[in-house]
Amino acid sequence: xxxxxxxxxxxxxxxxxxxxxxxxxxxxxxxxxxxxxxxxxxxxxxxxxxxxxxxxxxxxxxxxxxxxxxxxxxxxxxxxxxxxxxxxxxxxxxxxxxxxxxxxxxxxxxxxxxxxxxxxxxxxxxxxxxxxxxxxxxxxxxxxxxxxxxxxxxxxxxxxxxxxxxxxxxxxxxxxxxxxxxxxxxxxxxxxxxxxxxxxxxxxxxxxxxxxxxxxxxxxxxxxxxxxxxxxxxxxxxxxxxxxxxxxxxxxxxxxxxxxxxxxxxxxxxxxxxxxxxxxxxxxxxxxxxxxxxxxxxxxxxxxxxxxxxxxxxxxxxxxxxxxxxxxxxxxxxxxxxxxxxxxxxxxxxxxxxxxxxxxxxxxxxxxxxxxxxxxxxxxxxxxxxxxxxxxxxxxxxxxxxxxxxxxxxxxxxxxxxxxxxxxxxxxxxxxxxxxxxxxxxxxxxxxxxxxxxxxxxxxxxxxxxxxxxxxxxxxxxxxxxxxxxxxxxxxxxx
Length: 495
Known about the structure:
alpha+beta; three-stranded antiparallel sheet; 19 helices
């Protein structure tokens, strides 16, 4: 009588023989190579599925005898084998397992084969989950589903991929907490913190948003509300000493960009305001608490200079002060530049040589530490030219912005010490971590799903995808199979 193990191996061998015959026949027929490749890939997937089945069959069902002692109790082997669906990258098949418990209708307490194989909690293999979500963090669920189907010929629902995303994201926090600090030799001399906000389009909450009668939107009003996500980045960088003239050349003519040192060990994170354990927690709170932890982890002896570069959003600077960190505060020079351009256009046409000269002169003065002189000069010009209406409003806004942020505009000191003065890193984060995925055409999110996507996308963009997957598999294995050591020992005795 052929055993199930022998039968599984026999099926795999027959599949391989069919592939061999296909190769020979295609060569005789002079089949076009792309058509052969397509047919071969389908057969290779079938072979892989049969080999997976054979591998599982060779493990047996996990039968360790009629009873099993576990945690001071005697568990019974249930009468029948229990089927489990398993979806691998090669296809779907069924795993038959021996189960131990008190009786059939009660909890299945020990499943030896599941522990031996290290099966995941759900139906989908860890490798398939990894591939699925690598697609999902880069593109829409629907497009990811189509891509996986076209490659692996596996039909998965969009809903299942969304559920997989949220389930996987639950392991991100423990992974972050387990990550060791970078080696000091791999770090730059300056530790940089930077944060900004970006809206995420949300679905309407039926409980909070009562149905409204149709009403035409006002100018600039959006059809869907957004929830602000706070994005943060932490990295180190070597000093880059420059002069005011260097920055003017860089900003106005982009001459020295290639000489800049590159950020080291950059970490990205984005957090939505949400309810955690029954309490609403602001996204800014999470990001700035993370900043504090990163400073303690990466600069334990205080040898690095710590700088924070952000735009003029007062809520961000307030939150930084609440963290009580010893940090050099720097206003992003590009936001300053925007205000100077606004002021220039109160007197000169956009795109004119006069406007560019106006900006160049004042930018240089600001970089040399003469912020007060620039503010005073702008006020005098506004009075002299008797600005009115929208031009006066723009000038007042520019002057107020500079005045409110003067304490974070000591650019002469920053440049002399080689500190970064632009927040381009976090501007990029808001774009490629949040906007490029969360604002795809038609995207609308629930808070839980949005945060899950942001967590996994950050892991992916941080370059930690493979390590994260391995970490979560090991952690899940410990949680799912606390009896694994017992099963391993029993298997050895049975063998």
